[in-house]
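User: Please fill in residues for this 72-position structure.
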């Protein structure tokens, strides 16, 4: 997986969530993303900042999204 530009599928693996969670967050404009043409992309660094993670911590990606971040 490329750390600078992830697809929805790669972002799901990185965050350890289902695609439906990603799309729910996108609908609410709560998750940082950008487009390449018409395709959605995610930056690992932006996702780490969004979650309050240290991007330089190798264990940071293993925790998934905290429940309070989902807004449910």
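Assistant: Residues filled in for all 72 positions:
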């Amino acid at each position: 997986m490329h750390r600078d530009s992830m697809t929805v599928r790669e972002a799901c693996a990185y965050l350890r969530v289902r695609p439906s969670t990603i799309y729910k967050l996108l609908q609410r404009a709560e998750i940082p993303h950008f487009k390449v043409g018409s395709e959605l992309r995610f930056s690992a660094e932006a996702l780490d900042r969004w979650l309050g993670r240290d991007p330089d911590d190798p264990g940071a990606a293993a925790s998934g999204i905290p429940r309070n971040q989902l807004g449910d």
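For context: The helical segments are 8-15, 19-27, 44-50, 67-70.
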